[in-house]
Specification:
This protein is α+β, with helices and mostly antiparallel strands and about 210 residues long. The chain has helices at about 1-35, 80-95, 145-155, 195-205; strands spanning about 45, 50-55, 55-60, 65-70, 70-75, 105, 125-130, 135, 140, 155, 160, 170-175, 180. The strands form five sheets. The protein has a five-stranded antiparallel beta sheet with strand order 1-2-3-7-6. The chain has a two-stranded antiparallel sheet with strand order 4-5. It is globular and about 55 Å long. It catalyses: 5-amino-1-(5-phospho-D-ribosyl)imidazole-4-carboxylate + L-aspartate + ATP = (2S)-2-[5-amino-1-(5-phospho-beta-D-ribosyl)imidazole-4-carboxamido]succinate + ADP + phosphate + 2 H(+).
């Protein structure tokens, strides 16, 4: 019995040392992985989203940043990026039989190890590499933001005449399509009419803008 007690006393510190070794090894491995993962930098950053090159595809990450009147605010909204990405997934899935889209996957297990960190889960989307149409397609159901600013000036939004007497954030009689240009950070998106959006696209895709 005494020998067994002594053996346990001998084994315990050995086990503790082994566990410490394993923990240290795992920590070092995690540190090395983090160092490697830090090498991935976005190739393009917008006001809210970041884009990473993944060889034959792109990884688009929706952050929790807030953009208002083309300015990135200091505060963030928790899980905003997740909501944006999952809403996009819903509508891409819903309409894929009508119009093909660029989405490949929102499961980070399908992406490089860098995106398998908790902070990227739910807010990352692997996409096909396609030519972007430099137009932001906005459908408004309420008069607010830059639309309200335009309405106060001349009673229109993107060339569309609206009823008189509307108050800020009022619901519109029917949804309206109000396109805008896509500006780089530091510049401002410009609300344009449908006809102007066609002309704008023609600059990038001659003869194809109307399509």
């Amino acid at each position: 019995m005494q020998d067994m007690v002594q053996m346990r006393r001998i084994r315990y510190p050995k086990c503790t040392a082994f566990e410490s070794f394993i923990k240290l090894s795992l920590q070092e491995n995690k540190t090395m992985r983090c160092k490697n993962m830090q090498e991935l930098k976005p190739i393009k950053e917008g006001k809210v989203r970041e884009i990473y090159d993944n060889g034959d595809s792109l990884i688009m990450v929706a952050t929790d940043r807030i953009s208002c009147f083309d300015v990135i605010l200091n505060n963030e909204v928790t899980k905003k990026g997740t909501v944006l990405t999952q809403m996009s997934k819903f509508w891409f899935d819903m309409t894929e039989d009508i119009l093909p889209n660029h989405m490949i996957s929102v499961d980070t297990k399908d992406m490089p190890e860098f995106f398998q960190q908790e902070k990227y889960e739910g807010k990352s989307m692997m996409c096909k590499k396609l030519n972007m149409l430099p137009i932001e397609c906005i459908v408004r159901g309420y008069i607010t933001g830059s639309g309200w600013k335009s309405y106060k000036e001349n009673g229109t939004v993107c060339g569309i005449k609206l009823p008189e007497g509307l108050q800020e954030s009022d619901k519109l009689p029917e949804p309206i399509y109000t396109p805008s240009t896509k500006a780089e950070i530091g510049d401002h998106d410009e609300n344009i009419s449908f006809e102007q959006s066609i002309d704008h696209l023609e600059k990038y895709f001659p003869g194809r803008g109307k399509n």
